[in-house]
């Protein structure tokens, strides 16, 4: 049996992972795939329902109060833990074969490190740990014989395009981006947009935070940094291309002028299942992509004045050290404030820029240094945001 740990089981990645596992069970039998670990934050009732359905060995929630509620409902037989330490216990103290990290933000860093140190494969939909501490994650994977399997649709597509190719033959790595909810609105008109408008993504259905990041293109900037670590290249070799249809998920250009592109439906089931079954490809219960009906595909260069956050990510990616961790922390605070309605959409960039401009980066030699930076940058972002409220 393949025993799966699903971190962030009540989010969109978790929901799709359950669908994928059910599909694999229909092909292989129920005994072939099991869910050994479930973690969630505050959505305790949903977690309880999922635990009753899948009967994992361990579940983790955000706080002790939630853990007490879960224990009362689940009774004996399922271990219940909580908090950041509980997330690490989830991947180190249970019998599992693969971790699906569907967490959002910096909270995913410690359990990812713990899983890699243990030698587990980690299917990474949670890009922020790589942004914050990509070097530390790669070192942990090497030392513990773990492996990072990209699950973000674009890094996964790039990984697949590179299959069997030589690194020295690559000229450029191209990540595609939809452009987000406001791609057709001038930046000058965005001061008064609402969170509800930002969450109306034109092609994908995702969690709130990443959908706002799509509207600012911060998600793509973070994927540039992520790709730099995953494929061991400078961020200046990773280009972003606006592609409205979200059918081409990544491209790789080679020195002979050839370009290999990955096309697929806008459904996270494809990269999640590929990570779970790699190197095999299995059937997914989705209708095939009809390339004839597509008619045309469009590509354009991103306007850095429309998406200054993307330019900021390149700047931070070049600087390296702890600066990406500081930017990630600032962005998490700013996006949360926007979703709460306490700052405007354009203030997200201003907060991020202010934190980066005031930051003195150092080398990220330990996870404690990175987590200290994360804490301090969040405090600085709140201070910057305070006059805007």
Question: In words, what does this structure look like?
Answer:
This protein has 389 residues and is α/β, with parallel strands linked by helices. It contains 16 helices and eleven strands. It has helices spanning 12-28, 44-54, 64-74, 83-92, 109-118, 128-144, 153-161, 195-198, 208-216, 218-230, 269-277, 291-294, 308-319, 323-339, 347-357, 367-385, and strands spanning 2-7, 33-39, 58-61, 79-82, 98-101, 121-124, 147-150, 170-177, 238-242, 248-254, 259-263. The strands form two sheets. The protein has a seven-stranded parallel β-sheet, sandwiched between helices. Strands 9-8-10-11 form a four-stranded mixed β-sheet, covered by helices on one side. The chain is globular, with a radius of gyration of 20 Å. It starts with a strand and ends with a helix. The model has no long low-confidence stretch (mean pLDDT 95).
